[in-house]
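One record is given unchanged without comment:
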Amino acid sequence: MAIFRIKMELKRFAENPPHGMTLDMEKTAEDAKMWFINVKAAQGTIYEGEEYVLRVKFTDDYPFKPPEVVFISEQVPCNPHVYSNGHICISTLGDGWSPTLDVQGICVGILSMLSSCKKKKWPIGNDSYSSSMKGRSPDYRFFNGTYSDSSC
């Protein structure tokens, strides 16, 4: 079931991506379980002119568990909901996930998060979080009780 849904979403995303996002089909894995999305920050925002790359990794549990979505580019947006290691702190990637959501919805949420930000700053505890999570999936924080929307 997972691969069927992932391929359906991939086709839909490639044909109609959210504004400012493009799917890098050269880097996207043949099995479609790993996507690379180029993000161009919206005009009129504090991130205007900046570009990022998101990596989306799916597990066999998708859509019952959210995909892993992280910024992997050298430049990570300095945002109260994004750690300097690229991990994104939004509820739809954690306990707010629902199987009715999809990657387009996640991406629209990320664009909204970036566009509504008024001041560039890292989340509270960024340095300790980023060093303790080095080399780990952001999913690790959910399974070990360290995730909290209030922390960012």
About this structure: The mean pLDDT is 89. The helical segments are 2-15, 103-116, 126-132, 139-143. DSSP finds four helices and four strands in the chain. Residues 2-15 form the longest helix (14 residues).
